[in-house]
Amino acid sequence: MKKVKNKQRIAARWFWFAGLIFGIAAYLPFRQGNFLSGVWAVVLLGFFLMISSWVTAWIVGKRAKKTDRLLNGQHLITQWTFSPEQQRAYANYMKSNAMAKNNGLMGIIAILFVVITIPFLFFLEKDEMGGFLGIMGSILLFVFIFSRIMPYYYYSRNIKGDGQVLIGPKYAYVNGYFHNWDFPLSGLKRIKVIADPFEGISLTYYYTDRTWRNEHTLNIPVEKGADCKSLIARIEEGN
């Protein structure tokens, strides 16, 4: 079993450091005594980025502590390592899932593009239409290229992942990604055994943020011969 690195802690340190840099950038104009000479925007932007970075560092730091509880066995139910075949199957599944979501998103964006662009054309002069269509088309093209590239990026990340799976009652570490549903207005919705796209378990948890209630499903390959029903019972008992 490979030793799993707590990447959350590394990310938290980088956000603390970034906040410090942004704070220095916000403070330097005061040293020059020219706060009102046109650099006030730099001060405000630096201050905003400093606060944002430190809030993010605090949130990631909290997740790092939860990850530590899983890694040190405090909240660990079971753990296993993907075989090379399982890792490829998992990476392919994540790529296909991302492509399906992006295709749906591109369909919605294309509809919005038509709905927004066509009415505006009636308010533009003929010599302005080409530039407007060029700008809007460039945005649509950028989004389309981005939606095509990202699934392969996720595939690369997953195929190069550590292949480790650690499961707790309200935590899951899967191939380098940490998930938790132990905060307010969140919880486990359902968990079941699956045979497709691979033999494993499907775990769905929900959480609430500024976009209201959301759900996330984890489909995880399990070791051959694993007692999935017993694992599911232990997870449900902890929720």
Describe this structure in words.
- The protein is of the alpha+beta class and 239 residues long.
- The chain contains 5 helices and 7 strands; from the N terminus they run ααβααββββββα.
- It has helices spanning 7-32, 40-71, 84-121, 126-159, 228-237, and strands spanning 78-81, 164-167, 171-174, 177-180, 187-194, 200-209, 212-221.
- The strands form 2 sheets. A 4-stranded antiparallel sheet has the order 1-2-3-4, with helices on one face.
- A hairpin with a 5-residue loop joins strand 5 (187-194) and strand 6 (200-209).
- The two termini are 27 Å apart.
Relevant terms:
239 residues; alpha+beta; four-stranded antiparallel sheet; three-stranded antiparallel sheet; 5 helices
Give the helix level as a range of percent.
55-70%
Query: Main β-sheet: number of strands, strand sense, barrel status?
Result: 4 strands, antiparallel
Structural class: alpha+beta
User: Outline, from the CA principal axes?
Assistant: globular
Please specify the SSE layout and strand pairing:
Blueprint: H1 7-32, H2 40-71, E1 78-81, H3 84-121, H4 126-159, E2 164-167, E3 171-174, E4 177-180, E5 187-194, E6 200-209, E7 212-221, H5 228-237
Helix pairs in contact: 1-2, 3-4
Provide a brief overview of the structure:
With 239 residues, the chain is α+β, with helices and mostly antiparallel strands.
